[in-house]
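Ticket #4471: complex job returned nothing on first submit. Input attached below:
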Amino acid sequence: MKIVSGHFYGDNGKMKEYHYTGPVEHRFSPYSFNGGTVLAVAGEDFAIVASDTRLSEGYSIHSRDSPKCYKLTNTTVIGCSGFHGDCLTLTKIIDARLKMYKHSNNKSMTSGAIAAMLSTILYGRRFFPYYVYNIIGGLDEEGKGAVYSFDPVGSYQRDTYKAGGSASAMLQPLLDNQIGFKNMEGVQHLPLNQEKAVQLVKDVFISAAERDVYTGDALRICIVTKEGIKEETVPLRKD
Amino acid sequence: MALANVLQSESVDFSNYGRKCRGFTSSLYETELGLESVGGDNLSFAVRTACSDGDGSERKIQFLHGTTTLAFKFQHGVIVAVDSRATAGAYIASQTVKKVIEINPYLLGTMAGGAADCSFWERLLARQCRVYELRNKERISVAAASKLLANMVYQYKGMGLSMGTMVCGWDKTGPGLYYVDSEGNRVCGDLFAVGSGSMYAYGIVDSGLKQKDLTVEEACDLGCRAIYQATYRDAYSGGQVNLYHVHSEGWNRVSQSDVLLLHQQYQAEKA
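Support reply: We reran it on our side without changes. The output follows.
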């Protein structure tokens, strides 16, 4: 009777890997995961886009000061997380398209138009996607806050709040509860004002930095109002 | 190809790409970009982190997937009912996705499978329908619209598009309902349910349609109930039930009901 020795199995129940496992095929991957979390909240007359500033790869941190929010127009900010190379290229392409639009149409693109355009830019690479999770925050034509969230190939929708990136699964339920009042009974649905929203964003990122290794170092908040875009930087855990 | 033309990007050489066969029912599986080339160069665009887990699992790009949508014809037109959940792997990315795409005031398209694939191609279909209207000075028929969509995606057959949609409308031959998917299927029918939760929805609608001559209200209730039951049993469906009714004047949105509230309502009715 063959008895399987415990020596060959690791703690998680799977076989342990030995030093030599036979010929191993090494493959080039055009992608890498650089971490980072992005969050956007839309209010009555403002929008907030926030991101951490840590750029990591594997076990290393490449930079502690690499924010993921990019200003597009006076009324729109985009947050991009995922593969940093694709984030950079994508924002360059968006900037170029914004300039082209401004020259042909003699006006700036609205947030809704930028969102629709980004969807087609992303889908153009349907078979070799930009590995970027995008969230656009800004003001719509009526001056109300708008948030648009995307998947890597261009599916998008307008939201009130959204978290994207490495800690998104941790942040989104917290936002659902605090901004959407989900899973709470008998609570007054108070509208969100700007001060409370900024404080909530700070609290939420502090929580994310506690539990997600790819999030931390500092938090960059961009507040979009009709007066313009204000930036604020808040330190986070550096470990 | 249509995609390259519309987006004015340099066309990509697709000749290398082999494929894994994937029907839209794979909305149950995590989508990964599994493009394996036929020859020996073996490029696999799966995202790999240097610190992979002990079992070497790869972090893959995850698109939005998983759904229940249904549509059926009845005496007074077509009822279209959908859920609103989008999943990226096991994470629920959104509970408020619009899975009914309003192509024009008398045509609706539903979304199942890859969210970006469905919304992109149906938006392109809306453009084509408008061009048809301008050229021919009359509305496009449901059969023609569904054929346009089917032909557009057939060019990409084998490349990994994932789309299972129903084109619903009312034209001069009466109510129209076609099912079109990325495998190249296009079928006309009286009842379709598409997505990971479709089997549960079929059960409810099949039993409810036994009595002929439903009123509009009864048909709407049936559609709503079917989606609710599917969300109850299918993990990948949930959120809200969006209900549309297509009649001779066009379509109108009947209701949007949260599944949790529906659950409480049906429980109360049982008691």
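Chain A has a mean pLDDT of 91. Closing as resolved unless it happens again.
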